[in-house]
Amino acid sequence: MELISNLILVDANMRRRATISHVLSGGGIHVEPFETIEELTAAWPRAGVVMVHDHAGAIDTLVASMASHGDWFPIIAFSEEPDAQRIVRAILDGAIDYIAWPISPEDLATSLGTAIARAESLGNAKLREVMARARVERLTRREREVLGGVASGLSNRLIGEKLAISPRTVEIHRANMLTKLGANHTSDAIRIAIEAALVN
Is 174 in contact with 149 (CB distance < 8 Å)? Predict the structure, then answer.
């Protein structure tokens, strides 16, 4: 288990958080427990793997926090008796693995080891691609088209001509697209588009 240097645990359930922390620390894994993603954001770690309880919007919020900090940590989601659809959604949102809780200490250690090994083999570039794709997926079809035009270096007028909409409408889509991507500038949006393999 030397692959794990730091496990960041985010779970609002105090009892479960304490149990997981105890199980992992008993296996020699350093755990930093947080009640919420907001609490994690206030004390942003330097490195680690995030194990987050999967509830509505949790992974999206976590991805947005990582984007604003410019740090990309592997995300492992977990919940009680997850169905296949929930697991797929979490993976599409940016998680690299999913763990069903409760789980034995041995299986938890094995699952974490496998997930972390996968994250290491993916490398930082792949993780960034996963995160960028998750952010681009939030966009409407038209916002994606505008992003593609922006990333290709087209002006609002040229994007409008290409999509048969007015430059003012392009501006509105562009502003919405930047907000949804969590991008402060057009250059941030272009970087996300490149990382998501939306443009070459």
Answer: no
